[in-house]
Structures are given as structure tokens and as C-alpha cells.
Specification:
Layout: H1 2-27, E1 37-43, E2 47-48, E3 57-58, E4 62-69, E5 76-78, E6 85-87, E7 93-96, E8 102-105, E9 111-115, E10 118-122, E11 128-129, H2 144-147, E12 151-152, E13 160-163, E14 166-168, E15 177-178, E16 183-185, E17 187-189, H3 195-227
Antiparallel strand pairs: 1-4, 2-3, 5-17, 6-16, 7-8, 7-11, 9-10, 12-15, 13-14
Amino acid sequence: MIRAFYSAGSGLTSSQAAMDNVANNLANVNTAGYKKQNAGFSELLYSGMDAGANALRVGNGVRATAGASNFSRGTLQITENKLDFALESDGFFAVLTKDGSVNYTRDGSFKVSVEDNGNYLVTANGDYVLDKNGAKIALGESDLREKIGVYGFPNPHGLASSGGNLFKATETSGSAASMEGKIRSGCLELSNVELTGEMSDLITIQRSFQVNAQMVKTADEIENIINNLR
């Protein structure tokens, strides 16, 4: 019965992680440029019950792993705000965060930072938006669409979420490279989270959680029966 506790316990932990992932997606259903996060799972090591080539192998449950982002494009919403930009192509906007690192996003709801040496294009969090050369963008008379940089990756699915609707490059994603992107002003790309799909996933996860919880309860009852045998 100890194995039942381990397997069901890992199932409960993984189901909870999946529910947390769905909750995060639902919380960002109205976040511009947000990309749905898919939960990931992997099997734990199998145990051999006996020796030999045909040994019976028994699983030990499952564990949650780092999920992958769904980079399908969201629908465009017209805002008529001159500082709102949406990508109608692949790629990402590059931003310089407060810790000095460069991150990437599809959220084009930008603002203006008024500073002593000029006015700069920034995100809602105050991070500097970068141009094609990786430099801060100073506001002027020219069209901002011509200044804003668009960056692509050999494997965008290898990007790691860094929080705040931002992604960072990894060895799996490869290095960022400036690319020709199609930017539309006065628009925002909406989140690609589908509410109905997330609710359906939530129901499935809840049922999995209930099954694993029942397994723990049943294993505990059997243990009590065995311990009370005379």
C-alpha cells in the first residue's frame, strides 16, 4: 500500500500544479500579448518487481515539469492609442528591464518616460523598449514603427517565462536576432487564452485530483484493516 500512497500523492501534487497553471491563464485572459502556458508532466522511474528479461515493471506516479508556452497569435483589438502596437507577424518586442537584462514580450501597450535627457518609449512597468540595434528609443518626429525592434529566435518554444508577461532567451531557444516584423499601431494583440478551453481543462484536472484523493483514502483504509488484524 505504500506504493499506492506514493503514486496517488504524486498525482495530487501534479494535479495541483496543473490547476495553478490554469488559474494563471484565467487570470491573464485580458492581459495584452499574454501567451497561454501549457502544463507539462513526466513519468517517475519505474520499479522492477522481479529479476529477468520479462520482469514486471510498476510505475511510481507522475511529476509536474516546466510547461511550454503557446505562441499562437491572439486577435487584434483597435485602441486608436498612438502608443499601442501589435505584431502581425512572428517575433517579439525587446525590453531592457530594471536589472539590466534584455527580455522579450508580445505586449505592445507602451508608455512615455519623461527624463532629463529626453523622452523614451517604455512598457507599463517602466522597462525601456529597444530598437533594432538594441538601443533605447527616444521619441521624436519619425514614425515609431520604424524604430521599434522586432526580434526572432531559432526555437521560440524554448523561451523561458521570466514573469510580468516577459520571456528570456535560453540555450534551447537560441540567441535573439533582429528581424523584419509587421507592426501595426493603434492596436493591441489580445491574450490567446480561450476561456472555454481553460474551463474544460479545469474540470478534467479536478476529476483527476478527486480520483487520486480517493486512492489515498482507500489505501489508508486498507492499511487500517491490515494493522487491526489479529
